[in-house]
Automatic annotation (TrEMBL):
One MF term in the entry's GO annotations: ATP binding
Organism: Capsella rubella
Domain of life (superkingdom): Eukaryota
Keyword match Transferase: no
GO biological process: cell surface receptor signaling pathway
Every Protein kinase domain range: 68-387
Cellular component GO terms held in the UniProt record: plasma membrane
Transmembrane segments: 363-386
Keywords associated with the record: ATP-binding, Membrane, Nucleotide-binding, Transmembrane, Transmembrane helix
Identification of the protein by name: Protein kinase domain-containing protein
A Pfam family assignment: Pkinase
Lineage summary: Eukaryota, Viridiplantae, Streptophyta, Embryophyta, Tracheophyta
InterPro entries for this protein: Kinase-like_dom_sf, Prot_kinase_dom, WAK-like
SMART domains named among the record's database cross-references: S_TKc
Length: 387
């Protein structure tokens, strides 16, 4: 922040007597105009707390992205583009808004993005904002580099332009970490933050497969004391449920089905399989081809049931995000919690009377059958070897 203040003072102190190029004057005007709006929004948001942000020059940004060349392009969405570039020997993700499209919707969204991203910079599961550049007609943002980039709409990562599958352990980890993120937004501050744009393309993965939530441009901060607001779009839980289904199934939110080229919503698809006892068919086919254990299959089915509960129509019917986060932790512990002698969940998992009890009633029989079959197979193999 100190570097930004110094730069503002330098620009304000440059009088008309200085001979400057027209291009430099325009950059200074942009810097002052953008910086004025940003500082106003940041001061209102930070409430006296220090939020360190670096100031990058337009020369640094242009050199890092080769003048925003397509060779440095990582991904493109409706309102912005992501580039990867190196500044002072360090790799960054550089976010450039598509100016004409942002102006159509309102420039406040971009400043909303930088203010809230700055506030979340110390949380390990949000894409960290390092700084910004005000020397363009519209601010350019510099974030940490997430080596695997953003997920695509099917919940896969892109490698050499093609979707690459994620193992089940990583998919479950993504769901758990993003659930924790949304819970944090809903509970960590006096004023609740509603993200409103949770989808696979706003979820990045770093080299350790850690999920990083990004894009606060559509977010809404509720008045203190309010728990919800009448707004169009996602309130948080619904968007998370859809994204979890994307990651589980490997399908986009809407898929073209049938000869009439009609579109089917992923919630309708998953709900149909659930109501007809075919939950095992919801699993990403690519994941099945790679191999999935019986326990992992049960975890997937439990996650689908949880995701569908997040997508219910009425807010009062949806679980709170803190309940969702806790449930995903329980689902993650299913494998460790199976009693090897009985095949049922251990008693300590059921002490709190949670929804895991309901889950056990629904799927416990499958666990029991799985254990019985394993004993039968083991006995058969012993008979072959020693009989």
């Amino acid at each position: 922040m100190e570097s930004m203040v110094k730069k503002l003072r330098w620009n304000l102190g440059s009088g008309p007597s200085r001979k400057r190029k027209k291009k430099d004057i325009q950059k200074e005007r942009w810097f002052l105009a953008n910086g004025r709006i940003f500082l106003k929004e940041l001061i209102a948001d930070c409430d006296g707390k220090s939020i360190p942000i670096l100031s990058f020059s337009s020369d640094q940004i242009l050199q890092a992205t080769n003048n925003f060349d397509s060779s440095c392009l990582v991904s493109r969405e409706a309102l912005y583009k992501w580039y990867r570039g190196i500044i002072k020997d360090k790799s960054y993700m550089i976010k450039k808004f598509i100016e004409d499209r942002v102006i159509e919707r309102g420039v406040g969204e971009a400043y909303n993005e930088i203010v809230l991203s700055a506030r979340m910079s110390n949380h390990s599961n949000f894409l960290r904002l390092f700084g910004c550049c005000f020397e363009f007609s519209f601010p350019v943002f510099v974030f940490e580099d997430a080596e695997y980039g953003a997920l695509n709409w099917q919940g896969h990562i892109m490698v050499n332009g093609e979707g690459s599958i994620l193992p089940w352990s990583v998919r479950l980890k993504i769901g758990k970490e993003i659930a924790n993120d949304v819970t944090y937004l809903h509970m960590a501050f006096p004023k609740i933050i509603i993200h409103r744009d949770i989808n696979p393309t706003t979820i990045f993965l770093d080299k350790n497969w850690t999920a990083k939530l990004s894009n606060f441009s559509l977010s809404v901060t509720l008045p203190e004391g309010k728990s919800r607001i009448e707004i169009e779009g996602d309130q948080g839980t619904f968007g998370f449920g859809i994204s979890l289904l994307n990651v589980l199934t490997g399908k986009p939110s809407y898929s073209c089905t049938g000869p009439d080229e009609s579109y089917e919503c992923i919630t309708d698809y998953a709900k149909y399989l659930y109501e007809n006892g075919k939950l095992d068919e919801v699993i990403d086919l690519i994941m099945i081809e790679e191999g999935i254990t019986s326990t992992q299959r049960l975890q997937v089915e439990a996650c689908v049931v949880l995701a569908l509960s997040c997508c219910k129509g009425r807010d009062e019917d949806k679980p709170k995000m803190i309940q969702v986060a806790k449930e995903l932790k329980r689902i993650e512990r299913i494998e460790q919690s199976l009693d090897v002698t009985s095949g049922f969940l251990k008693p300590e998992m059921l002490e709190d009377g949670s929804s895991m009890v309901k889950w056990t009633k629904k799927f416990g029989i499958k666990i029991e059958i799985m254990v019985i079959l394993s004993f039968c197979i083991t006995g058969f193999l012993i008979a072959l070897l020693f009989g």
